[in-house]
Amino acid sequence: MTISVKRQILLSTTMLAGAMTGYSGRAYAACTNSGGSTYLCSGSETTTQSINAANPTVTTASDMNFDTTGGIGNALTITGTGDISYTDGYASTSLRSLERGLSVSNNTVGAGSTAISTAGAIYGRNAGIVAWNNNGVAGDLSLTTNGAVSSGGDGITMTGGTLTGDLTVTNNAAVSSDGYGMYLAHTGNGALTVNVNGDVKGTVRDGMDINLYNGTTTITSSAGTTITGGNDGIDLDHNGTGEVVVSAYGNVKGAQAAIDISNMGPAETRITIGGDISGSSGAGLEIAGARNYATVLAGGSATGSFGIRSSSFGSANDITVAGRVEGTANFAIVLPNSTSGNRVELQTGFEVVGIVDSGAGTNDSLEFGGSGSDSFSLSDIGPKYQNFEDFNVIGGKWSFSGTTSKTFSVTGGTLGGTGTFGGLNVGNGGTIAPGNSIGTLNVGNITFAQGSTYQVEVDNSGNSDLINASGTATINGGTVSVLAQSGTYATGTQYTILTAAGGVTGQFSTVTANFAFLDPTLSYDANNVYLLFGQAASFVSAARTPNQRAVAGALDALPTDNEIFVQVLNQTEDGARQAFDALSGEIHASVGGALLDEGRHIRDAVMGRMVQASYDGTGLGSGGPQNTQASPSGMMMLGYGSKDLGSYEPLPTKKGPVFWTQGFGSWANFDGNGNAASLDRDMGGFISGVDAEVMPGWRAGIAAGYSYTGLDKESRLSSADVDAYHLVLYGSGKVNRFDVRGGGAYSWQDIETSRNIVFPGFSEFEQASYDGDRGQLFGEIAYPVVLHPSIAMEGFSGLAYVHQETDGFTESGGLAAFNSSGYNEDVTYSTTGFRAATTMAFGNAVITPNLSVAWLHAFDSVDTDLALAFAAAGPSFDIQGTPIARDSALVQAGLDFAVSPNATLSVAYDGQFASDADEHGIKGRASWKF
């Protein structure tokens, strides 16, 4: 019994020793071998789990939870040779230990690599994750954390091999520890790359402590992350030959320095700050290196006892500030003496709190760049910006105030303001623009190089920018660019734009301005440069359409002191074309054409009554009866057949008088033609008449009416209102089988027009009242046929001669008022088509659906021309209005209701369709027979 117990104890001890030291190719407890060198760790365990194998590949199950906090030892230890891989793909897993949560070591002598990827939470009181390639390993070491890592010691510790291979850390989750948040060391030849996408915190030590001997170091923290250290936020020591690149887009905080970088090798150090970095007792950024570049981006900041400090004597430093740099101990930026020169660039939007000291070198430069606008006080040079020898504007638009004895160079961007400079050298690509609007810039000597620009603002009161040189002005070419403020400028105005007490030498190469028609020229004397305006080109040169050319030609003929001439003279080409269109007065020419066209409605109303008279006993279609029947000479009449229509059957024409009235209304749009703009027309009215038989088969009548027409040219801000009164004489009869109809109409028109004339810098309202009249003669011949016992039709063809004229007028309003001798136009129309109808009984009434389709053709010119002239002065010119349609289709469809033997009511749709116009209307008619 005693022997048996001892054997059991000995066996258990041997197995425990095996589990702790490991046997090659074997795993114990919850990490089981899946075949070859593949292992799966799963389940809940409270004792240390270990794997020791060649080329082990270890994965986890979602239920893996190893917790050894009740005892001793790591939660999971992986030891091996060759290529080691550990992959935890589940956020539900965890490793917890009073020692190390996860420990991975590669003991290869020669080629080998270690790759670790975690998803679950890991805690170790001494260390969260520890991974290293031992001295003999020549291979990569990488870690990707997707789960939180925490520790009472160091959060993550990684050590690369002494041979070759890269060390890479990608942190996608929070790391929190009482020691180092991360401690990374790489003594071999290889790059070290760290991507921080989660918060990192080292409560007592550094947030990240990094040591590298050879190879490039690249550290990037993402926006929204925070690296916090009880000492430094990031402490980086580089002793090899590679470049150091740190991009802090997130926040970095240190109880001492926020970022402390020591690069003892010959390569460059490049730091980009996009977040907020702050050191409590140390610098925001501390740099020591042979060649240092640091950029504080817009929105970023560096704050500490020194905002930025470089401590390598003799090194070259290049600092760019687009964000905020603050030194709480009075110095914002401190740079050491440099044999090759330090450079500080302030970009638009910068903020510097504290002194900027560039050291005691002799080649240090303060530069002004960026892409926006900013200001700077020259009086800060010396007290605040110390030990700079060279000053240069390289980008952005800078407004300088104050005084300095220093000479500035301008090689890019714009130097402006009202400051006083010891000297200015404006180079190729540089621009000088005195004032914040119009102002004076003072300087000792000034030099312009070929490719430079002098930007001069002027106003219409004779004021301009000025460069006032107490010394000499040397001009070796360059451009004077004139920017005119809003207002009107007359030719002959002279401005002094440069004066030099020591004399002016040379000339500018070119001069430009933001005018289409004012031509800037320069003149020189011994001490001054002058700017003068003259007319550069005719207005016609900017016109594109016939109407624009007509207006432009009239403007060209005006006196140069005419106010309208001066207003257009100050426009750009686009502004001038807008002025030509606004001034054109198209509405007056368009009124005549629109009134010519709408005469059709009067003809149609009267012609409709005559058609009705030809077929007495049936209803009258709106705009004409649009219903027909066979003649009463024995042929079957419309609607008469087997169906009994009672007292409403078609009857012969009656001799007694017939009184009738028709109301009409329509809305139309006439397209523009690329010259005249489009025109909208709304109209409505009525016409009433009476007719009677004057001889067998012939009737004559008289009608009168009223209509209102509203015209609108929206794109020309013009409109017209027309009240018209109409008188018509008409007659109809039969010649053999043909119906003959005709008449004459005369209309009196009261016309009111208004124009809003608007173009850049000008607005005016013009209006006019004048009379118009329209006369027209019209007639048609129709031939009735019967296609079917219940359908009758007539074909017809007609001619109309229309004369439209308007009286002369003079607009009232202002400078752009027109006068005109009036409008006069004749057009002959032909109309060819057919009318068809059928008749049916409905209760005690007879209903007649009807349809008319016709082709309307205009023989003469469809353009509408009118001669206009400016009322104040100048020749007349012809303006074209919106054209009328050459060919169009007329469609009318309606219903007639014979409500008694002697009364008919009608309603119909009336449409006109053309390629460049359309009109839609409604008509209603009533007639009474006695």
TrEMBL record:
Residues 1-29 form the signal peptide. Residues 652-930 form the Autotransporter domain. GO terms for biological process: proteolysis. It holds the Pfam family Autotransporter. Its EC number is 3.4.21.-. Gene3D superfamilies: Autotransporter beta-domain (2.40.128.130). Keywords: Hydrolase, Protease, Signal. The keyword Transport does not apply. GO terms for molecular function: peptidase activity. It comes from the Bacteria. GO terms for cellular component: outer membrane. Transmembrane segments: none annotated. NCBIfam families: autotrans_barl (TIGR01414). This is Extracellular serine protease. The lineage of its organism: Bacteria, Pseudomonadati, Pseudomonadota, Alphaproteobacteria, Hyphomicrobiales.
